[in-house]
RNA sequence: GGAACCGUGGUGUAGUCGGUUAACACACCGGCCUGUCAAGCCGGAGAGCGCGGGUUCAAGUCCCGUCGGUUCCGCCA
């Protein structure tokens, strides 16, 4: 059967007047005036008004039109007419014209959908996800999917023009050491053994460099079995890039050009290049974050030196025992905030891990409230100096280890920036965070770990530190931060076996363990590995920010809920006993009981 | 693993300090209607309040548990 569609609904304009057209789509809305019937016909390009007029339309088609309902799928043959003067609809791209229908074919009827496709009212997200194919019919969702497609297309165009090859890497692979929990896939053929789904193609892209591919990229699905957030899904997409014979500046320059290209093409924005580079340590000092939102102030100030001898013991003792006292000047909030709001800040600080939040309000006479009474006039004036405080300001302080102070105040800063409306949402704030530490301390495990991953090269001048003082070693790593969200991160990689072995040693891997986990990779170093480096973007996150969305679910066609379920397909679901047997898997008694109850309730 | 918020016709909401018939808008069904475009007018049907238990003379309203959604902490780069 041929549909002979001549145009998409949303593309009809005045220039098409008098043309005979065939359009197909869904009935978006229907206005039945008894005599004349208007149908807004929808496809992915937009709406066009179709007119069924008994004086023009043949009687059979008109009778059919009377039975049309929302979401019926129809084909209309007709003629494009200019709308009568005064009848144009400026809200519609096709509003200058309409189609006079000659014939109508109902290709499919439709039940009334569980929520309105044409409404902009918020719909319960669970319902949207259950009927995702209906949700995706909404213009807003289609626009986002189109944007995502265009970003992907432009990425491919740009990287192709720069000599990159798109190469696929395995989904069924071996666990890579990226800290997150792996999704495992049982092997039927090798009883008791498992594949891991990739957390990223890290090792493969380095092996491609070893293979002489020189420039590789991939838009690739990655998997991490950790709890979800608005900006975290268990399966997500990375834009993965790797290049050989490059240094840090080469990689950063290429990526700046890429991002500038995307911003210009998608958003019409000219980025100022090169992008700002902020050393990690400075970001932590000033913003308490390794992905600072620098669209607003409220910077952190270190007052340790000012308060180290004060009578307020919480402060002086902290400094004496090697901690720091840092604060934020919440400008104007001394007058604006109620006591209740200040207490809320304290509760927030506690929930972020602070022992407490010290505060005071700056007045003409000095300070009042909170901890003001513990300080002499002289101490207050030096404190206000450091904090750049003026009457009416609210000062908040955390006294603790450096890491705790930074983290707590960094989070409070974000909360306050939002609460006080200091964030300019029209600004695109892009910057690099560079000079990362190579290692970071894992409190729970009680050991040093790779801050980025164990293949990150140290700064050349810090190579020595790998053996003498690892915690001080800095990495040739760089993160790209957009409006306070990490959108990409990468590094120059280690390309010499001796350095890689030192790295493993610094991480406390025994020779045997390194051999067992990465033997194949270490061996590859012996066969001529070029210097190389790259980056990986959170593709969904990038699209989310460019689309102005707050949730990853809005830029993924079929996302999972916060409890990692797919409400449409019902995944995950119990497996059949026969499947489990083939895979050599037996459920625990607890899992067995749970599956039983799911089945009995009819939930699965 | 923890916390908070939410769950009332198909959808979005209201429902006060527990009180007798659960309200409104949209959608839906029928009728009228030849220029609307979130069409209009008239009429109608549709929920016992996520589920289970408890307190009470009486429970959308209070309590406990549970399921689901969302957000945050932990986790995750």
What does this structure look like?
It is a single chain. The protein is an alpha+beta fold and 604 residues long. The chain has four domains: 9-108, Nucleic acid-binding proteins (OB fold (Dihydrolipoamide Acetyltransferase, E2P), Beta Barrel), CATH 2.40.50; 158-278 and 430-554, Bira Bifunctional Protein, Domain 2 (BirA Bifunctional Protein, domain 2, 2-Layer Sandwich); 296-419, GAD-like domain (Gyrase A, domain 2), CATH 3.30.1360.30; 569-604, no CATH class. It is 32% helix and 23% strand. It is built from 19 helices and 22 strands. It has an eight-stranded mixed sheet, with helices on both faces. The protein has a five-stranded mixed beta barrel with strand order 1-2-3-5-4. Strand 18 and strand 19 form a beta hairpin. The model has no long low-confidence stretch (mean pLDDT 93). The structure holds one RNA strand of 77 nucleotides.
Task: Give the topology.
Layout: E1 20-32, E2 37-43, E3 46-52, H1 59-66, E4 73-82, E5 97-108, H2 125-130, H3 132-135, H4 139-161, E6 165-166, E7 184-186, E8 194-196, H5 202-210, E9 215-223, E10 235-244, H6 248-267, E11 276-279, H7 280-287, E12 300-302, H8 304-307, H9 313-320, E13 324-330, H10 333-336, H11 339-351, E14 358-362, E15 367-368, H12 377-387, E16 394-400, H13 402-419, E17 430-434, E18 439-442, E19 447-450, H14 465-468, E20 477-482, E21 485-492, H15 497-506, H16 511-525, E22 532-538, H17 539-546, H18 577-582, H19 589-600
Parallel strand pairs: 3-5, 6-9, 11-17
Antiparallel strand pairs: 1-2, 1-4, 2-3, 4-5, 7-8, 9-10, 10-22, 12-13, 13-16, 14-15, 14-16, 17-20, 18-19, 20-21, 21-22
Helix pairs in contact: 4-6, 11-13, 15-16
The protein binds one RNA strand of 77 nucleotides through β1, β2, β3 and α2.
